[in-house]
Amino acid sequence: MFTVGDFARLAQVSKRLLRYYDEIDLFKPNRIEPSSGYRFYSAEQMADFNRILALKELGLSLDQIRQALNDHISTDELQGMMLLKKAEIEQQLRGEIQRIRKIESRLQLIRDDESGKSPNVIVKHIPDQHVLSMRRNVDDFEAGMVLYAHLQSTLPRRLRDGFFFCICHSDYDTETNLDLEMGVIVSKPADSSLMLSDGTTLTLNELTGTTTMATTVVQGALETIHLGYASITKWIDTNGYRLAGVPRELLLQFPKTPSGNDLVTEIQFPVEAIPNW
Question: What are the distances in angstroms from CA 22 to CA 13, 25, 26, 36?
Fold first, then answer.
């Protein structure tokens, strides 16, 4: 048997917590000595106490913990609750990391402006291109990358070496519920459609080309893609051009690392020279 102090030390909690749980009849001592009123806990109680602490760490209220104990929640059920909580926390962490990356990249833009660094933009002649593509609504750009990877893995092997592209048809001020057109550029017209092994259908379309496509390459995770758009913005402003169409993104290299820092994307923006009247 263990005193309150010893049991608290072994369980890595405060004596006050044990006394409080005793007062509210959530976790009672194994025995109370009648003459002194001293409370004693047994080693067998540690499993029950760890169950209470696990439920507490999962965010349950004391009333919810009491109900879970009354329902005799199993260890497997606790495991399932833990996995759900883990997924929730990991999602929150990913969101915070993405936010930090965006802040870092915007600070880099400020530094580039302060140093007078010239944007690395190249104007290309891009011809009309045949593509096999589909159009989907996705939660965010990260979900779009998952869809990209799925496309790459299910396309026939002969098409996997083609460049993948994405066009966002949503308003520029939204980052969720995105209307994305994505697919692969093909060198020759194929059939009017292609059904993949998972039932997804790609249709044959054409990307309109232009003699003046402002392009820039960005290496880094999705959170840094706006660096390329900022470069094109600055280049347009200083070289007498204006936007003349919807931009597209070309995946030059799929990310192979969890951070996505090895993603390489070419941003292509149709532009036209502002006429001198």
Answer: 14, 5, 6, 17
Do the strands 129-138 and 39-41 form a parallel or antiparallel pair, or are they unpaired? unpaired
Rounded to an integer, what is the distance from CA 99 to the centroid of its chain? 10
Q: Per residue in 154-192, pLDDT tens?
A: 888 888 778 899 998 887 556 678 899 999 998 876 678
Rounded CA separation 196/202 (Å): 8
Cα-based torsion angle of the residue sequence 75, 79, 84, 88 in order, rounded to the nearest 10 degrees: 120
Residues 162 and 42: their CA atoms lie apart, in Å, by 67
| Mean pLDDT computed over 82-96 | 86
Q: Which two tokens stand for residue 19?
A: 């006394």
Q: One-letter amino acid identity for 202? A: L
| CB neighbour burial string for 41-69, b if at least 16 within 10 angstroms, e if fewer | beeebeeebebbbbbeeeebeeeebbebe
Q: 3-state class of 111 per DSSP?
A: helix
- Give the other-Cβ count within 10 Å of 141's Cβ: 19
List beta partners, residue 186: 130
Beta-carbon contacts of 145 under 8 Å, excluding residues fewer than 6 positions away, are: 222, 255, 260
Distance from C-alpha of 62 to C-alpha of 203, rounded to nearest angstrom: 56
CB 182 within 8 A of CB 147: yes
What are the backbone dihedrals phi and psi of residue 41, each rounded to the nearest 5 degrees, phi first? -120, 150
Cα–Cα distance for residue pair 225/246, rounded to 1 Å = 16
Dihedral (Cα; 94, 84, 200, 177), 10-degree rounding: -50
DSSP 251-276: EEE---STT-TT-EEEEEEEEEEPP-
User: How many Cα atoms are found within 13 Å in the side-chain-facing hemisphere of 18?
Assistant: 25
Q: Which two tokens mark 205?
A: 């379309």
Q: Tell me the pTM.
A: 0.64
